[in-house]
Design a protein that fits this description.
Blueprint lengths: L13 H9 L15 H5 L7 H5 L4 H9 L13 H14 L19
Length: 113
């Protein structure tokens, strides 16, 4: 009997198995849908803290924070990185954006932190 989640799980054809096992399996996972500047990825920037990588250039998270009434000082202003992250966490845990802004489930849901 075949193991349920073996090394070929979800690979239904011989071509798929060959492509995955011979090429993709050893390739690093890259998330091309992020809001980090590609130049910073290329230069292997070492971020100082989670705020810089998580909120630094993510306009979707900024929009969510604005819709929750967070002052711009804590979004793109001069607040410290710690203050900005704490405002982000507060917005995620206690606020609900107005319905008119649509769904934020993929970009700002607290369960995605």
């Amino acid at each position: 009997m075949k193991t349920f989640m073996d090394k070929d799980f979800l690979l239904q054809t011989e071509t798929a198995k060959k492509l995955y096992n011979d090429y993709a399996a050893t390739t690093p996972i890259l998330d091309y849908h992020c809001h980090i500047n590609p130049q910073e990825i290329y230069e292997d920037r070492q971020f100082e803290n989670i705020t810089q990588v998580w909120l630094g250039g993510d306009h979707y998270k900024w929009r969510f924070m604005r819709s929750c009434g967070v002052d711009e000082h804590f979004i793109t202003g001069d607040a410290s990185d710690k203050e900005k992250f704490l405002k982000w966490a507060e917005a995620c845990s206690t606020k609900t954006p107005p319905r008119k802004y649509g769904s934020f489930a993929t970009s700002a849901s607290p369960s995605r932190i």
